[in-house]
Amino acid sequence: MSAAEDKIAALGHKLPQVVPPLATYQPAVRSGAYVYTSGQLPMVDGALPVTGKVGAEVSAEQAKELAATCALNALAAVKSVIGDLDKIQRVVKVVGFVASAPDFTGQPGVLNGASELLGEILGDKGVHARSAVGVAVLPLDAPVEVEIQVEIAE
User: Considering Cα of 65, then 70, then 76, then 82, what sign does the dihedral take?
Assistant: First the structure.
């Protein structure tokens, strides 16, 4: 295992298998020194643990945990392309979408689940730029979706 995967285990998590695409796309692609993931839902063992809108059926704290699951799924997608998470030079950008009740405005706090976990796993390499966007609905009625862009070292 890589040092990054050791850290994932030390934090009480497991790097999952890559979530199969729901449509015609790849979970991650490499272009030069960068790997871009597709949006990752918080799938666990092939299913969403909860569905609905954040601020209605799903609490902000639940959604924050789901965002961390999305980040783990994104790392699995990156690993499927580069083979070793220790090749990550840095996480450049995280984009997160939160299926939000009309009056919910806590999208940044929800996305902290992904950002904090990436920082815990990768240290300074996990510090990134980020967008947190509220949306009406996500695929499969998922509460949150996260994509990451990473720079890799050869």
Answer: negative
pLDDT digits (tens, 9 = 90+) for 71-118: 999 999 999 999 999 999 999 999 999 999 999 999 999 999 999 999
Backbone CA torsion sign across 118, 99, 38, 130: negative
Place of tokens 């704290």: 61
Q: Is 2 helix (H, G, I), strand (E, B) or coil?
A: coil
List, for residues 97-110, the tens digit of each pLDDT value. 999 999 999 999 99
User: 107-122 vs 3-10: helix axis angle to the nearest 10?
Assistant: 120
CB–CB of 41/73 below 8 Å?
Answer: yes
Q: How does DSSP classify residue 91?
A: E
